[in-house]
């Protein structure tokens, strides 16, 4: 499981129709349209959270972690820098630690390499990409039919950030983000991989949705 969404399954009820849900944070509110709970999406491909072997989060921000509690029995793949930041007091901004605090009791695999080969066969690689947060990471997938892709985490939020060389004003380390982006550009070229920007709504609308998947 890569990333865990912005709205916890426990916070809303599936009706079979789109549901408008208000996300309330200490410094902001936003409305989101929900279609299916994460648990239901997993069920459609014959999995439950308890059957997920590994959990990896691109980073600790609330919009990537709010179903993390469902995977407390999985092995959590995380860098030491990110782990330490997540459990420091006071917690980092843009986090809701109550939704990932149970991971502290999980089986934890601390990633110490720049590239961590999850299954030791080159098909799933977690790559260090710090800057947005101390231990931010991206996910490389080698798919037989689809080809090579990299899931961005928040390396970029929108394609315009890449084309205009813009960096958000809430980075942990702006210069580190810039250096990481150059490094990932080289990685993409070397791996002949396509970058999928996770916050890109236009791209999202074109993607297959559960229960369909990429091969």
Description:
It is globular, with a radius of gyration of 17 Å. It has 215 residues and is an alpha/beta fold. The two termini are 16 Å apart. A 5-stranded mixed sheet has the order 6-7-8-9-10. A 3-stranded parallel sheet has the order 3-4-5. A two-stranded antiparallel ribbon has the order 1-2. It has helices spanning 38-44, 80-86, 159-163, 174-191, 201-206; strands at 19-24, 29-34, 54-56, 75-79, 107-111, 115-117, 124-128, 137-143, 147-151, 193-196.
Task: Give a brief rundown of this model.
The protein is α/β, with parallel strands linked by helices and 215 residues long. The chain has 5 helices and 10 strands; from the N terminus they run E-E-H-E-E-H-E-E-E-E-E-H-H-E-H. A hairpin with a 3-residue loop joins strand 8 (137-143) and strand 9.
Shape: globular
Stretches with pLDDT under 50, minimum 5 residues: none
Helical residues, percent? 10-25%
Q: What's the tally of helices?
A: 5
Overall average pLDDT: 96
Q: Find the structural class using helix and strand composition.
A: alpha/beta
Keywords:
three-stranded parallel β-sheet, 10 strands, 215 residues, five-stranded mixed β-sheet, globular
